[in-house]
Amino acid sequence: MKSVLVCVSAFVLLGAGTVQAQGAPEVVFNAGVVSDYVFRGLSQTDGRAALQGGVDADLGGFYVGAWASNVDFGDGTDAEVDLYGGYRTQAAGYDLDFGVAGYGYVGAPDGADYNYVEFMAQASRPVGAAVLGAAAYYSFDYSGADKEAAYVELNAAYAVADKWTLSAAVGHQWLDVSGDYATWNLGTAYALSDALALDVRYHDVDSPENDDRLTVGLTASF
Fold first, then answer.
1. How far apart are CA 90 and CA 95, in angstroms?
2. On the CB side of 84, how many CA atoms lie within 13 Å of its CA?
3. What is the CA angle 107-111-115, rounded to 5?
4. Superkingdom of the source (predicted)?
5. Can you tell me the distance from the alpha carbon of 60 to that of 211, in angstroms, rounded to the nearest whole number?
6. 3-class secondary structure, 27
7. What single-letter DSSP state applies at residue 94?
8. 16: DSSP letter
9. What is the Cβ-side half-sphere exposure of residue 46, based on CA atoms within 13 angstroms?
10. pLDDT range class, residue 9, cuts 50, 70, 90
């Protein structure tokens, strides 16, 4: 889920707000591998590769889903498992998405308090061959030592060619205990097929404890 909500790729932006016709739910599975699982500029796997996968069901704009990835926090935590749901619609030419997600961590040590819930509002709008978007996230009991936390992001994607898309995002994380920080990413995605995409992305963050990163990811949807 974090990979979907954060580091908004061209495929997320260009598909945001699509409302399915009433009827049987549309179910889509996804699976992928990434050289480093980066969330809001910070590695969740200590710079190592991650296997990820999930499933989404959409009915008339309402959606639910689940997503999982291995993580490495250096304390025995093995995996992140997310459950989420929300509603997508359109208004005044904008694609809108309102949702809530619960993030759970398998194998976390006692007292780590990693699990949390986050609320999200997202808007995007096509402008020629580009899509411009903005998103806001809020948690009343964020992961770890922090309680209240908020994150805002501006993002954009541009269809360079038939199978090539450039995308970028810039965001700021506010935390009530840990230090606030800004982050941005820039990358390109190539559609190897209708179901398979390759993404190469550079991430930077202004936190002195964290380095910039280059990630490569391969994702399939079916």
1. 5
2. 28
3. 60
4. Bacteria
5. 42
6. strand
7. E
8. T
9. 10
10. very low
Check residue 22 and give its pLDDT. 57
Q: Where are the beta strands (DSSP E) in 60-210?
A: 62-70, 79-91, 94-106, 116-127, 130-139, 149-159, 164-175, 181-191, 196-205
Write the pLDDT tens digit of every residue in 153-209: 999 999 999 999 999 999 999 999 988 999 999 999 999 999 999 999 999 999 878
d(CA 169, CA 134): 9
| Burial classification of residue 187, based on how many CB atoms lie within 10 Å of its CB (0-12 exposed, 13-18 middle, 19 or more buried) | buried
Per the CB < 8 A criterion, the answer to whether 120 and 140 are in contact is no
* Residue 186: C-alpha distances to residues 118, 158, 192, 200 (Å): 24, 12, 20, 9
How far apart CA 26 and CA 31 sit, in angstroms, is 17
pLDDT of 127-158, one tens digit each? Answer: 999 999 999 999 999 998 888 999 999 999 99
- The domain spans of the chain are 2-221
* SS3 category, 4: helix
